[in-house]
Amino acid sequence: METRCTMRSSSAHNLKSGLSLWLILWLVLVKPCRVAACPSLCVCYPTPMTVSCQSQNLTLVPAGVPYDSQRVFLQNNRITELRADSFGFETQVLWLYGNNITWIEAGAFSNLRVLEELDLGDNPLLRRLEGGAFRGLEKLQSLHMHRCKLAALPHDLFHKLYSLQFLYLQENQLHFLQDDLFSDLVNLNHLFLHGNRIRALSENAFRGLVNLDRLLLHDNRIRQVNRRAFRDLGRVTILYLFNNSLAELPGQTMKDVQGIQFLRLNGNPWSCGCEARPLWEWFRKARISSSELMCTSPSPRRGQDLRFLRELDFALCPLPDPGSLAGTTTTTFSTKTRWWFSKNKPASSSKASYQKNTEMGKAFPFSGVKPQFLPKTPDESFSSKYELSDDEVALPKLDPEEYWANYGNEDASIRCFELECPPGYDNPAFPSSSPSLITPSLLNLLSFSIITLSLHFLFG
Q1: What are the pLDDT digits (tens) for 316-335?
Q2: Which of 63, 202, 313, 411 could tie 309 with a disulfide, CB 3.0–4.6 Å?
Q3: How many CB atoms lie within 10 A of CB 202?
Q4: Is 299 helix (H, G, I), strand (E, B) or coil?
Q5: ω before 298 within 30° of 0 (cis)?
Q6: Cβ pair 41, 59 in contact under 8 A
Q7: Are 95 and 74 in contact (CB under 8 A)?
């Protein structure tokens, strides 16, 4: 019995010793440690192979990085240059942010054929890039170049980066975007350009970005957007243009972003005269989440939200010219608007006073007078999808008979200069609605009747 107990005690001791040995081996294998091939001042982790050399005051990319390293961390050092022979290894993730990089040689990353993420952000001395700086990175998916003081980007900088999905260029000093700069980035999903100094968006600035989902352009100095600048952005769902210098957007611009869901346009000096009508009409049809758009001009509309203006606010505006590539307007008024002008014009009116100009329709030219609500005609209707205010309800209503009595009888000073005249308006055969006019045919008929009656009395 005593022997059996001794054997059990010995077996238990051996089992504990074996478990302890396995625990020590496990800790040795799993615990991060230096390996024989790890560069000086770096720490290497074997699974997955990671080389961490961050915050070591390195001025060059260290030699001896294992070729099969999957991740290499070189951030927060003092590296100044990246040359074509700087990277003798193959990695998927490379972090170089927070260094003193001033120059990147063309082809510097060409050996990194399987690189998927490259972070060059927070390099404040990096002011320019060579055209072929990212040559060979055809599997790159994420590229960070934020806060680098870049003033311009070479036209071929992103050439053949077909796999790129995320591009971070915010908070640089970019003044413009070259045409077709992003044309090869057919799979780009996020583009961050906020916090730069961009002044205009040209027609081909975003050409090729057919899969872009998010475009951030806020905190720039954008004053002008070409009417076709967003023509390839049909899949964009988030667009930020707030805190720029935009006074207007062409009518076609927003129609091209058909999938938009979140739009921010606040912080711009919006002009809410006739030039705002295309954007206002787009908002009437769009079903999106949008910021406010506060008007800064004309003065009567200052502080109003452009989205909530009424159709009456644009009653005197010329209609858009559908054939104009620039999205401009032409002086084309409805017949009812011309008649309203003839009834309310100042005594010294002339054709010149109604010629097309940029201020037309921004404010009513007659003090205290607003256009009345006119009845529909057979040819055209006057949309009234807004609620009438108390002042408008109090205005005298137009008698339909008075309207038809004056239809087509506008003053000659504004008569049909490129306007929508009714059919036969200038044709002598077009019947006049004024009872005081006697046509030649009626005069001939009356003369013939008098002669016939005289002959009847004479020869009874």
Answers
A1: 887 765 544 444 433 333 33
A2: 313
A3: 17
A4: helix
A5: yes
A6: no
A7: yes
**Residue 177: closest CA among 152, 141, 207:** 152
**pLDDT tens digits, 196-211:** 999 999 999 999 999 9
Residue ranges in the chain whose pLDDT is less than 50: 1-8, 15-16, 19, 22-35, 323-388, 391-393, 395-438
Alpha carbon 34 to its chain centroid, in Å, reads 51
Task: Assess contact for 94 and 121: CB atoms under 8 A.
Answer: no
Rg (CA), the chain: 38
Instruction: Find where tokens 């036209």 sit.
Output: 155
Let me know: does 204 contact 226? Beta carbons within 8 Å. no
Burial class (CB in 10 A: 0-12, 13-18, 19+), 316: buried
Q: What is the spatial distance between Cα 137 and Cα 413, in angstroms, rounded to a whole number?
A: 68
Calpha distance 120→131 (Å, rounded): 16
pLDDT of residue 90: 86
Phi, psi for 157 (deg, rounded to 5): -65, -40
